[in-house]
């Protein structure tokens, strides 16, 4: 099964992922993250077909990550403009 997840935070050697629309929390070893993955990055996450708790593959979803960053930047600009009025 494949889903989207965001890296919520990385603390020491653990990474907290929020998976799916329900944002189910999964804590994994930060060593299992793709190279250059950081907090706020979106991932495509694949689970074992027989066990939804076993992650078989993690890849950075660069398109989703960039789209979210752009959306947040746009909202921040709107808030800044409102503050100037």
Structure characterization notes:
With 85 residues, the chain is of the alpha+beta class. The chain has one helix at residues 62-84, and strands at residues 2-11, 14-19, 24-29, 42-47, 55-60. The longest helix has 23 residues, at 62-84. It has a single domain, classed as OB fold (Dihydrolipoamide Acetyltransferase, E2P). The protein has one helix and five strands. A five-stranded antiparallel sheet has the order 3-2-1-4-5.
Total helix count?
A: 1
Shape: elongated
The H-level CATH homologous superfamily, spelled out, is Nucleic acid-binding proteins
Rounded mean pLDDT score? 92
By secondary-structure content and strand pairing, the structural class works out as: alpha+beta
Strand order of the largest sheet: 3-2-1-4-5
- Helical content band: 25-40%
CATH topology call: OB fold (Dihydrolipoamide Acetyltransferase, E2P)
Q: Largest beta sheet, briefly?
A: 5 strands, antiparallel
Secondary structure elements and pairings:
Layout: E1 2-11, E2 14-19, E3 24-29, E4 42-47, E5 55-60, H1 62-84
Antiparallel strand pairs: 1-2, 1-4, 2-3, 4-5
Please summarize what this structure is.
Helix content is 27%, strand content 40%.
What descriptive keywords fit this protein?
5 strands, single chain, 85 residues, alpha+beta, OB fold (Dihydrolipoamide Acetyltransferase, E2P)
